[in-house]
Design a protein that fits this description.
The chain has two domains: 1-36, no CATH class; 38-104. The chain has 104 residues and is an all-alpha fold. Helix 3 packs antiparallel against helix 4. The protein is elongated, with a radius of gyration of 21 Å. The protein is 70% helix and 0% strand. The chain starts with a helix and ends with a helix. It contains four helices and no strands.
């Protein structure tokens, strides 16, 4: 079906080949097909939550500093730093897993 809908771009050749070889299997599930990486949904959810926390804590930190609520701002600054470190750790883990899966 993919070959009938649109011409295959070079980046999609691996996906189309995997679908042609395994017509009943979802690509990217169950460990991947034909060397494609498997998604780590729980780790991605932690990254999503920590990313949202980084954004919101940064915004509220600036606002609290502007309004002179220094103790609240310092607490939110700590939340910002902690969630930022968590986000960096998650991104490094996800990207290193994807790189290892592509090398296989």
């Amino acid at each position: 079906m993919l070959r009938d809908v649109a011409p295959v771009e070079p980046a999609l050749e691996q996906v189309v080949g995997a679908v042609d070889e395994h017509p009943g299997k979802q690509v990217g599930q169950g460990g991947g097909v034909n060397g494609l990486h498997r998604d780590n949904i729980p780790l991605a959810l932690v990254g999503w939550v920590s990313g949202c926390t980084v954004i919101w804590s940064a915004l509220f930190t600036v606002g609290n500093f502007l309004y002179g609520r220094t103790p609240h701002a310092l607490g939110l600054l700590g939340v910002f730093v902690a969630s930022g470190l968590a986000l960096i750790s998650v991104v490094q883990k996800l990207w290193s897993d994807n790189g290892a899966a592509e090398a296989r």
